[in-house]
Known about the structure:
The structure holds two protein chains of two kinds.
Chain A: H1 4-7, E1 8-9, E2 12-14, H2 16-19, H3 21-32, E3 37-41, E4 50-56, E5 59-65, E6 71-75, E7 90-92, E8 96-98, E9 105-107, E10 112-114, E11 140-144, E12 147-151, H4 159-163, H5 168-175, E13 182-184, E14 189-193, H6 197-204, H7 210-213, H8 215-232, H9 237-243, H10 249-253, E15 257-259, E16 265-267, H11 278-291, H12 293-300, E17 306-309, E18 313-316, E19 321-329, E20 332-342, H13 347-361, H14 368-382, E21 389-391, E22 400-402, E23 405-407, H15 415-428
Antiparallel strand pairs in A: 1-2, 2-21, 3-12, 4-5, 4-7, 5-6, 8-9, 9-10, 11-12, 13-20, 14-20, 15-16, 15-23, 16-17, 17-18, 18-19, 19-20, 22-23
Helix pairs in contact in A: 8-9, 9-13, 11-12
Chain B: H1 3-8, H2 38-41, H3 85-101, H4 105-110, E1 112-121, E2 134-138, H5 140-151, E3 162-177, E4 180-193, E5 196-210, E6 216-225, E7 232-233
Amino acid sequence: MTNATSLVEDDRVHRSVYTDPKIFDDEMSLIWERTWVYCGHESQVPHAGDYYAVTIGRQPMIMVRQADGSVGVLYNRCPHRGVQLVGNLKGNTGKAFVCSYHAWSFHLDGKVRAIPLAQGYQDTRMTRDNPDCSVKRAARVDSYRGFVFASLVAEGPSLAEFLGEARIAFDDMCDRSPVGEVEVVPICHRVIQHSNWKFFMENQLDALHPSVTHQSTGIAAGKVEKRLKAEQGSVPLYYHYLSTFASSFDQWNAVQTINFPFGHGILKAYMGLRPRDPDTLAHEELLKQAYGEERAEEYLSRSIHHVLVYPYLSVQSPLQQLRCLRPISADRTLSEIWHFRLKGAPEAIYRRSLWYYNLVNSPATMINADDLENWTKAQWGLASDGGDWVSFHRYHGDDREEGGVIHSNHGTSEAVMRSQFRAWTRYMQGARP
Amino acid sequence: MSGEADSRGALPNAGPDFEHLLAQEVVIEARPDGARTGAQDIEPDHSPRAPIGATAGADSAAGTARPLPRAGLLVAGSTGMGIDLQREVEQLLFLQSELLDTKQWQGWMDLFDERGVYWMPVAPEQTEWEGSPSIFAEDKLMMEIRKGRITHPNAWSQAPMWETNHVLGNVAIESVDGGTIQVRSRFHMMELRRDDVRHFGGTYRHTLVRDAAGALRIRLQRVDLFNGQAPFDYVLQIWV
């Protein structure tokens, strides 16, 4: 068992937490396969029988719309001989799951439906009244504003308790719809990072790296943005999405992070997503009609760039994007990249956010290409004997802690990583969730 | 987190008025002309991409030393027939592949019409280059940014050696409507990055028009990767 306290100090961590396969296995057992893990959005499976294969830790699961309209999460495993019940990523299974090996079939909630040659099981332990004849279900399934999570253990905090303040990720996204709902765009980009999952989570709130790592894109976009501004007076917002990456260190230092218990956190906004153009004003008017002036203003003035739900989710709520990690091994991580539509909001608002999805988060990203390169080299560097410790000393001792929430006084404080490793240590010591 | 919360095993909470933490505080605006960005503050006195022996800071923009590939000659047949459109279209597509493989980014961009768009949708059923998620959806201004990015000395992901090799075939003119020509072809691209080779294949659909001088130009290039919905092992940095 991993001895977490010997690996994590307040201002540094031992390199093995990124590289050791045994620690990775413990993370799967103690974190992923116990805590609430994001499965998908309800709108991915709109009709009974619709399913999506999803991995929780090392467990192959199926998120399915059941006959009663609720969403269930099952182990993708036939109770007879262990064959996976679905062999593809998504689809509609009709009224039942049928095993391709011996035709055992199951209702959408996993209960056994029919066993061929059932008389052959008479007087055995495997008669159909035995619960072992049904597909095993995730111990708990819950959703928050349409976002579905499952936990593979029965005990522990509720989903609401687990999310805590990080639920703002989903509130902020949904509240931007005049009917308070989003629906998924049924396309998922999947990109494999050649690095440990922690690099992604740390990087999301690392406000120092953008102007270093992404300077090439920021500068190239800034040149075009300036030229267009001189020629036309105004420039579409999406050039600014890219050019801000090359902002100065002092500008980044002014963008604050908020770090919650259990590793969740927020990088506050900096891109200026409330321009005064007709599309934005029309959207704001719809929200005012739906929620009243005061609440609409509260929703629109939230300062969020993105919200992390530790240890696997980065939600960019003002631009309706969500990235979810599915760790493969200590040095391989699959990222799923989703986009959402605000129900009832103007098409122009969707299209504006789509530019960010395409330019920053697509598999031809002009931003993450350099991030992934960094993390690959970090993975290789940390596998070496060139040093044992990873430093998180920047602004150590400078942050403010109030009620369990850590506020950075400087945006580039490594409070983010220190906070995530506090959560990691708790998990690895066996704490719930 | 507070000791009291720890001992109860409960989840600390920022309180009901948590939203005050999200008050708008910082918006990074573009700086006025001439202001240095954070990136320029660390302007390279080095280049991870310079060849052995190069002086520090030398511009190592990939590909500048390579000769521009020439378009294939169009030679009239011995039967006395003129140059046919099929041959002309093929030579344009072959040249485009050659420009990519020799990293002649500007030459590649110049093949596009002023309104030209390079589009790689995610799924075959997508019909419009705007309005739904794409892998690439770039007009000439966005192409200029991509070119600017990968030729910058500190485009870190460009430091590892990489090359591509395109092979193109099955060229079929699907329609000629006035000045607009629709062409379908298939491609296979191998990419070497560091020590690994990746394969990409799929279909190109070129919408071609003629410029004032009569030369064929690309109005729209649609690229359907046959493996575009499989997980990408790393990402794509340049046009396919």
